[in-house]
Amino acid sequence: MPCREANHVCDKSQYQEATVWEKVKLNIHLLLCSFCRNYTKNNTKLTRTIKASNISYMDKTCKEALKKEFDKALKEHQIN
After folding, report:
1. At CA 15, angle to CA 12 and CA 17, rounded to 5?
2. pLDDT tens-digit map of 12-37
3. In whole angstroms, how far apart are CA 66 and each of 30, 74, 78?
4. Which domain of life does the UniProt lineage start with (predicted)?
5. What is d(CA 15, CA 8) in angstroms, rounded to the nearest whole number?
6. pLDDT by residue (tens digit) across 43-77?
7. Domain count, the chain
């Protein structure tokens, strides 16, 4: 497994999207590659930090409404 693929599988694994076979191949790769072990370690740390931060964000409906208002204001202030 090339490092690029290993990093992609690592990302998928963080979101429970990796297959069992991908995880097996990743773990074999991690035994051999210190660079990917470090990537995996940092990726895991980042995921834990984000989950623990309790960041709130706008839902899709609010984002769309804000975008409409922004586009409307932008059109009103455009130079002809």
Report:
1. 55
2. 998 899 999 999 999 999 999 999 99
3. 44, 12, 18
4. Bacteria
5. 11
6. 999 989 988 888 788 899 999 999 999 999 999 88
7. 1
For residue 58, report the phi and psi dihedrals to the nearest 5 degrees: -75, 145
Of 58, 67, 5, 64, nearest to 30 by C-alpha is 5
The rounded distance, in Å, linking the Cα atoms of 42 and 48 is: 10
pLDDT at 80 over 70: no
Non-local (6+) Cβ contacts of 58 within 8 A are 66
Sole residue written with tokens 């999207």: 17
Domain with 62, as residue range(s), is 3-76
Residue in the block written with tokens 């409409």 = 68
